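Molecular record:
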Amino acid sequence: MLIATDRVLAMRCPVCGKLEYHNLSRFWFSDYEAVQVICSCGAVKLVVEPKRDSKFWHISVSCVVCEDMHLHRISRKNLWHGNKVICLFCHDTGLELGYWGTILEVEGVLSEKDDEIATLLNEITKDDYFINSEIMYEVINCLHDIADRGFLYCQCGNNDIELDIFPERLELHCKGCDSINIIYAENEDDLKFIRQIDKIELPRNGFKFLDSLDSVKNKKNRRRRK
């Protein structure tokens, strides 16, 4: 009988934001020594602590939101022989930080998340719906990259942010506290501005514009949608 003892960790670095796959083998771990998983930039992503006299291992995950480590207590059986992907998340916000499982299972989860943006764009079939369709698509891709790195969330602790698309703008809506962040996507200045943004934090119970400085004077009198 062949027993699989290899797993993969897929996780973005909380420092550089790069997504990497890390191959892990059960035979690399003793019963008492902690092992660090390191990003190619040198930052510690995750620490695995086997417990000799316990069926559970301690997995400490670096969090991009809290800038701290979150401890997960996971059974040895689920880590190495489970059939489902283990989601490593932020205890405070629920933000998904990394995925542990077989290579096929982990790639499947990440593929589903990548497909979300494609589905969103395919729902809008007419290019003339947007004021500038090329700019809009690029801005949406930028938002997708920010969210994929774990840098899109609300101050209330919710990371389940809805995206509403309009001809000239995008509206980020927090379902937790009903805050709204408006991002314009009409011209090169708007695209240049969003490309310079590393993190988007929606204000708790608030309302905010996020657009290029060059466009503010022309847009400051625009009203939010009802």
